[in-house]
Amino acid sequence: MDLETNLRLALDHREFILHYQPIFDLKTLAPCGVEALVRWRRPTGELVPPDEFIPAAEQSGLIIPLGAMVLAEACRAMGRLRRGGLGGNPFFMSVNLSARQFTQPELVKQVVRTLRDERMAPGDLKLEITESVLMEHPESAMLKLRGLREFGVGIGIDDFGTGYSSLAYLQRFPIDTLKVDRGFVSGMDEYGNRVIVRSIIGLAHSLGCDVVAEGIETESQLRDLAGLGCDLGQGFFYARPMDEAALTSFLGKEE
Ligand code: G
Ligand code: G
Ligand code: MN
Ligand code: NA
């Protein structure tokens, strides 16, 4: 069977699950949100990472039902965390949107409907979109971002610095967060990467955004980023992506 057929069956059989990676405050080390990351759990127990199926899901259009499932499940998990008294206030759930999901005409309506169905506070949700997706059709992207923002949903730009952004648009888009791509963070001992990270932090703050550094693997990267004024971070140093049970226990210990 080809991958597309396999993915279709996997969706019917509910083989897609979410892991969550905590995002923390670089100054206090307190958790302040999580990023939902989808995995394909094969009946054998094997966990297939998203890089191996998101492109095919995107190509085939299956990303639409898969993305809808991811969003609804992330909202439900957030509800369970809140009811369990976990996740301080403010605490957000970050969900990745692919190009095809974001360009869907019904995107804003669908997000609004899901939040209502799942009774999730819009301010608890952050959507991550890459800069290339936003810049491809910036005017229609603007309308969607405004629709989401008016409803109270947060917007983060994922992998920032790896694509091309028009500064004029960045300034006009209602964005809350820039996420520094982990490539820059892992290379921060090189002067060039360090300059880029410092510039992204400065740019984000000038735009009124906060900054999340991705892929923090060492304490020295953490200190370095904190020293540069970076607000938030995620990475193996603090916590790996984990299933909901592990997340519940992780957040319980951090309270
Ligand atoms: O989970 P992992 O840490 O391997 O993530 C690899 C990539 O897959 C990341 O770039 C992330 O943006 C993407 N990804 C993870 N989960 C989702 C998802 O639910 N939807 C989309 N569109 N991309 C995702
Ligand atoms: O959406 P995005 O592509 O940024 O998704 C984050 C990806 O980065 C996921 O695949 C996640 O598993 C991975 N990741 C998270 N923390 C680290 C880290 O500290 N180091 C590395 N190499 N990868 C990480
Ligand atoms: Mn992301
Ligand atoms: Na990223």
TrEMBL record:
The chain holds residues 467 to 721 of 728 of the full protein. This is Response regulator receiver modulated diguanylate cyclase/phosphodiesterase with PAS/PAC sensor(S). It comes from the Bacteria. Residues 1-255 form the EAL domain.
